[in-house]
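Note on ligand handling. Small-molecule inputs were canonicalized before submission; formal charges were left as drawn, and no protonation-state enumeration was performed. Where a ligand contained multiple stereocentres, the stereochemistry in the source SMILES was retained. For glutamine, this procedure yielded the string shown in the input block below.
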Amino acid sequence: MTQQPDHDLVLVVDFGAQYAQLIARRVREARVYSEIVPHTLPVEEILARKPKAIILSGGPSSVYAEGAPGIDTAIFTSGTPVFGMCYGFQLMASGLGGEVAHTGAREYGRTDVVVGEPGTLLADIPAEHRVWMSHGDSVTAAPEGFTVLASTASTPVAAFENVDSGLAGVQWHPEVLHSEHGQAVLEHFLHDIAGCRQTWTMLNIVEEQVERIREQVGDGRAICALSGGVDSAVAAAIVQRAIGDRLTCVYVDHGMMRLGETEQVRRDFEEVFDALDVVDAADQFIDALAGVSEPEQKRKIIGREFIRTFEAAQVRVFGDADEGETAYLVQGTLYPDVVESGGGAGTSNIKSHHNVGGLPDDLKFELIEPLRTLFKDEVRAVGEQLGLPSTMVWRQPFPGPGLGIRIIGEVTRERLDLLREADAIAREELTRAGLDRDIWQMPVVLLADVRSVGVQGDGRTYGHPVVIRPVTSEDAMTADWARLPYDVIERISTRITNEVAEVNRVTLDVTSKPPGTIEWE
Ligand SMILES: Nc1ncnc2c1ncn2[C@@H]1O[C@H](COP(=O)(O)OP(=O)(O)OP(=O)(O)O)[C@@H](O)[C@H]1O
Ligand SMILES: O=c1[nH]c(=O)c2[nH+]cn([C@@H]3O[C@H](COP(=O)(O)O)[C@@H](O)[C@H]3O)c2[nH]1
Ligand SMILES: NC(=O)CC[C@H](N)C(=O)O
Ligand SMILES: [Mg+2]
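Structure output:
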């Protein structure tokens, strides 16, 4: 993103934190514009961007370890306010003459913190509250001139500040929802210590992206990969604002969509986006997947076939490109797609989302991804502000590879038909129970290579099990299994086993994320 002249900027320096984007997102929630920079960016360059404040993130290293990422201590005397979280807090302590040690007192997860002296950072926050910790090192002495504000049973210095110098820090992670009053702590720093103005709103994201896309595309043309989901709908609406009818939306029916989905998307979207190109590519995708059961291989094949389909659509819609003309592809990529594909700073690959890690190496499109730094609930807020219909904004997520990653085993047309039927029943019952908004999503998974014995109509059956996986979530980064009412589960189970031939058993997935992911592949 480009700098916002009318807004104060907060830079989050990333030391390999798991949740750096979450910090930036919490800052935006406090109505201050924020971006992330890697810790390798020299301090002069950080300061040259004229941030109103700087946040040092957490990270996996130990400050005194050889090769641990550090920061030039000039950052603490530059006059720009700095806030340290966890590793960032330890860096501030050690950089200014305090002490950090490996005390053997480790805290992971829920921890009770006691506020001894609220100061400015912890003003009006209950003296005892619960926070989320994840550290093995501890600050054992605060630097001179700092006031120690809080402690825990095993960490004597859990928060400190030096308001005159604009410096403060906490050992815990105020950015995660499990930390009580985390947002208040962050806002005390941003508003009361650093004096950041509260001017940023989601609408600014739209304006800024529209401007940027106009510059990027000039008088060129773009196609948008539109799935029927909220992310691509919002991305398309933003790009349409920027380049008008030089945008064409392309929906791919890869044969792994749900029952009636293509017709529904066509109906709903033609009203909002005049030109919707619907491509029937079922044979192409299913043939390409023949004989493949390994999940990453499936994802890569699906990612590749998506791009081949968009290339063909580009030529069909716009004709052959002129010499040197750039082909643009809009995707509704969000930040969680990027992290899981291993695209964050130092994060590992969990699964290759088709639109990020699953893209082929010979990609010729220049990508336009206006939502790449955002989380789903932020995207929904943007969608509402853009006036998109609420059925579109609140639609449950559905993965790009579709039912293909919900068949555990090889994807075949017969298996897809089975799963489509079971999935339609489960979704119908969830809607009937009025639970669509309470449940984040509810994959139905076909264990295609597993069979179990049943008895139906006094006869033996040897059919497949399906798994239903209802989950609740805030942003898909973490999730919990949803406690669906028993009578809803019962109706789903009875109907699926009665109505779907070949399925004689329904099981319920009761795993949170982590350790399980939402989808099974
Ligand atoms: N069937 C499809 N046809 C065209 N593009 C698709 C299709 N499925 C996925 N995409 C592209 O891949 C992107 C990522 O898919 P993803 O499922 O994460 O987002 P979404 O479908 O827009 O929203 P949601 O997460 O709510 O389902 C989409 O934003 C879209 O650009
Ligand atoms: O567009 C997508 N392409 C993919 O390859 C993909 N894989 C998972 N998902 C969706 O992402 C969210 C997190 O899913 P996981 O916990 O299974 O990783 C959930 O909402 C999943 O449905 C995908 N979406
Ligand atoms: N989450 C963190 O930033 C951890 C900091 C440091 N690695 C520790 O264990 O103390
Ligand atoms: Mg989707």
